[in-house]
User: What shape does this take?
Amino acid sequence: MVGGSRRVGLVTCAALLERDLDRELLRRALVEAGVEARWLVWSDAGVDWASWDLCVVRSTWDYYRAPEAFLAWVARAGSLTRLFNDPGIIAWNAHKGYLKEIEAMGVPTVPTFWVQAGQEARIEAAASALGAEALVIKPAVSAGSFQTRRFGPGEAAEAQAFLTALSAERDVMVQPYMASVDGHGERCLIWIDGKLTHAIRKTPRFSNDDERVSEAIEPTPQERAFASAALGEVAEGLLYARVDTVLDDTGQLRLAELELIEPSLFLRQHPEALDRLVAGIVRRLA
Ligand SMILES: Nc1ncnc2c1ncn2[C@@H]1O[C@H](COP(=O)(O)OP(=O)(O)O)[C@@H](O)[C@H]1O
Ligand SMILES: [Mg+2]
Assistant: This one.
């Protein structure tokens, strides 16, 4: 390799609770592109981050359990190596309060009743503000459906108990249950280095469920326009992103989540996305 070997750290967590299906595909493709690529654990104090030319955050799926420690690591690693996505983007994306900013830009998001940690909250107030009887309650800092539960119209007491317990510890989101997740599904739009590459469909998933996903789907023109609007002006600088969407009862696309930290990119489903990600990393190394 001209100019010596180029070293890319792929960043994961100490214990993966589920399989990362992108994992070996990405490392192997980087090695085939002539790059030294190795998996590193973000919370491992023994890693010399400065010895890596570039690091890509991938399966750091435990970060929501220790968000402050994770964001401190992001800032530190960002000062020692080149970290992707950008440390500032990662910090912004770690709390789903960013949905309010995106909504304010004119991009429809899933309606949300926000409850701050420690704040007293009544489920009736949330239901009436949202105009919904079937609700989802989940943490504002989360991943992998952690503490994410669905409650039907007859379950107000259970919903109240869950809301009270969860909001005692953390910021909480209450949302209408978006029924389209059952039929149409949650659609994840995958963005690699400046381009939407493919979409996949996810079946609904609450605490303790497994993740089930489709093969690659060609994004519709509406989905392409929606993804660009949702990513807004940060789009160009991103190495990767995932725009998770649902449909509301009127068929309108709504943003469920913007995943800029550690999204699965479903690379197996679409080899071109893998090639594009590797090319994006190699270009940033140059
Ligand atoms: N408002 C909602 N309506 C229907 N399903 C939801 C809703 N919010 C979350 N879910 C389900 O819970 C899963 C996890 O929620 P999500 O907001 O994607 O958080 P995270 O992926 O960070 O855990 C979603 O993939 C979806 O299946
Ligand atoms: Mg999600």
In short: The chain has three domains: 7-93+279-285, 98-108+180-265, 113-177. The two ends are 12 Å apart (CA to CA).
